[in-house]
What we know:
This protein has 406 residues and is mostly helical. The protein has 18 helices and no strands.
Amino acid sequence: MRSYRSLFRTAEFTPFLLSFAAFAAAQTIGGLALATLVFRATGSPFLSAVSMFGPQLAQLLGGAFLLSGADRLPPRAVLSALALSFAAATAVLALPGLPVWAVFAVVLLQGLVASLGGGVRGGLLNEILTKDGYVLGRSVFNMLWGLTQMAGFATGGALLAFLSPRTCLLLAAALYVLSALVTRLGLTARPPRSAGRPSLAATWRANALLWSSRHRRLTYLGLWVPNGLIVGSDSLYVSYASEAAGMLYAFGALGMFAGDLAVGRLVPPVLRPRLATPLRLLLAVPYLFFVLQPGVALSAVAVTLASVGFAASLVLQERLMSLTPDDLAGQALGLHATGMAAFQGIGALLAGTLAQLTSPASAMTLMAATSVTATLTLAALGRHEERQSAVPGTRPGFLSEPAAKD
């Protein structure tokens, strides 16, 4: 599968993307509205950042308890239920007079439920597309995420100039309902990929198996740590430039789109593995510029350039899939999504704390410097591991034993 045309000829690929687009639009509009609501109510950069990204920490619990469901539950039913639960929770967040502690209780529950979404979507995409179409299809998926974020944050910023944050939250709830409808009507009812009941024991066994290889561990850490630290910087846009936060998020999404387009469509497969470290460095280095506290225009340029580096995830996801058997693809991608969300939540907490103690600009710079250090460290460990375990005819880190069944 070598072209976008062949992708869109694939049955269910288009409704799969449309359902995700509605869900992503709801997340961007709702997240920006909630962060603005909390910042206006409290004046706290920390609480604003945590309201937007902190709930992703709850996905750690979901990853520990629920991830086996990514391969052991019917994907259409899970995605429909997930969208409807987000619609209900977002409508609750729009209630007038809701105290701040209740806001955080609701969004933490959202984060717990969301832990299944990444694995289910990733595994379903793996089923819809053939093996040779996965990277191109994933790049389209990522580009759609970037475009939707760009449109969602720009639209959300414009709506917040005329409407209240609570009205924008209700609009987000309606988009979640639309996502559930498209999922239910546009996708077929597939059976689970793996036999057995979802359970804590099954989740832990498969996670331990996935984590047992040093190659996969380094791949997971490469997906999680640099990304999470930079998303921590992203979480400070509202406190850094509250009136222009939607624009900064939109330009960041534009950079993501450009990076995924270039890596997924234009870069030859033989060159992709070499781009993981340069792209992760690109993700962080422009944020070092924020130490100078640039204006909105220069900040938008830096954010756009840095966000091209998010395409490193595409390269590393391809590597992860090459190390994982098909019957664990959903849980492997779910563990990636859960860990990435958790590290993004940790990044938001850390960035918000630093911003509270110093300033948003200083915190963004410190998070970027830490991301650069993490990338260089992981690259050095990866080179050492390749030298240590290079054995002709083997695939380092591939799971040779089958996943345990319940």
